[in-house]
Amino acid sequence: SSVAIRSQLQKISSPTSPMKSNQREFDFYAPRGLLGIVIESSPRGPMVQSISHTSPLLGMIDRGDYIIGLDDLNTKGMGAAQLTRLMAQRSEQPQRKISFLSFAGATKG
User: Fold this and answer.
1) If I label 3, which of 10, 11, 49, 54 is the partner at 20 to 30 A Cα–Cα?
2) Residue 64 contacts residue 103 (beta carbons within 8 Å)
3) Mean pLDDT, consecutive 10-residue segments, the chain of 109 residues?
4) Cα torsion for 83, 84, 87, 88, to the nearest 10°?
5) Distance, CA of 109 to CA of 104 (rounded, Å)
6) What is the pTM for the complete model shown?
7) In 51-79, which positions are buried (b, 16+ CB within 10 angstroms) versus exposed (e)?
8) What pLDDT score does 103 carry?
9) Cα–Cα dist 73/60, whole Å
């Protein structure tokens, strides 16, 4: 699984910025219920548009982070509506594994 995620990261990397020092891939195990995030579609895949102050992800993710996996399912080719539906279908599971890709150098000042 870790190897598959690394190969996904290489495919997601922008050819104009080959250095990966500012990229961070991480997993978050979300509890049952609403996540309190808004997802938007982007050329690189589903991206976090906003995070509610009541979200269990608050402080763990940032606006502009990409959602690259859900329960080890590759989500980078999905649109926001498709991923939102999938997350809603799984909202009653005891936990969901959500994989994120953050470009910390680009999104944080």
Assistant:
1) 49
2) yes
3) 42 46 88 94 96 94 96 96 95 94 62
4) -150
5) 9
6) 0.75
7) beeebbbeeebeebbbbbbbeeeebbebe
8) 85
9) 21
